[in-house]
Amino acid sequence: MTDWVALLHELADAADRIATRHFRTASLAVETKDDASPVTVADREIEAAAVALIRRRHPEMAILGEETGETAAGRDRRLIVDPIDGTRNFVRGVPIFATLLAVEEAGAVVAGLVSAPALGQRWHAARGMGAWNGARRLAVSTISRLNRAHLFHGSLGGSGTSCVPCSRARQASCRAGKRSSSQPSRASRTHWRASASLAAPIFSRSSR
């Protein structure tokens, strides 16, 4: 049985090195995509590094990426990559951004990982293994009263969307302050929908 979590950590290690090298540099190259969202050289380098590693280790896998779309569609297994979630933060030097990674088999995500190198934090989950922040196992918060809960949001309302209709996992990411763009890419949407069944408790501890 393949240890997908170990593979995702290896991919995240490479992504962290690239993101850290470009973060807060005056020479950071930034372009604007057709949807008006920014993309940086770091986004493209991280996704290219992930694709190269998967091509070497698991050439049978399809890949769904934020920047390059889907390759080898229709295969039973694929890697999902959002190289920098929170690109606007990354561009402005705000350390709240992360690389999102997941492995999907037969339409169901079996492992996922979020790596936030500027915060020195990493979260991962695998089906049947629970959700973890490093060596600390996570659990759903026991807070049951709204007036005792904490809510964090990455938008001030100028984006035209709110947390109310969001998926369960995207709400969890909002609580953690990990989202700064309001319109997630296909890769992001897929990753967060999948994370709902794997790692909804990933950020919940912080609201205790």
SSE blueprint and pairings:
Blueprint: H1 4-22, E1 30-32, E2 38-40, H2 41-57, E3 62-65, E4 69-71, E5 77-85, H3 87-92, E6 98-105, E7 108-116, E8 121-126, E9 130-133, E10 136-137, H4 168-175, H5 186-199
Parallel strand pairs: 3-5
Antiparallel strand pairs: 1-2, 3-4, 5-6, 6-7, 7-8, 8-9, 9-10
Helix pairs in contact: 1-2, 4-5
Give the gist of this structure.
With 208 residues, this protein is an alpha+beta fold.
Strand content: 15-25%
The major beta sheet can be summarized as: 8 strands, mixed
What is the N-to-C order of secondary-structure elements (H for helix, E for strand)?
Answer: HEEHEEEHEEEEEHH
Q: How far apart are the first and last residues' alpha carbons, in Å?
A: 36 Å
Overall helicity = 25-40%
CATH homologous superfamily title: Fructose-1,6-Bisphosphatase, subunit A, domain 1
- The name CATH uses for the topology is Fructose-1,6-Bisphosphatase, Chain A, domain 1
Backbone shape: globular
What is the CATH C level class, in words?
Answer: Alpha Beta
Number of helices: 5
Taking strands numbered 1, 2, ... along the chain, how are they ordered across the largest sheet? 4-3-5-6-7-8-9-10
How many strands in all? 10
Kindly name the structural category.
Answer: alpha+beta
Any idea how many domains?
Answer: 1
Q: Ranges with pLDDT <50 over ≥5 residues?
A: 158-184, 191-208
Q: Rg to the nearest angstrom?
A: 16 Å
Mean pLDDT: 80
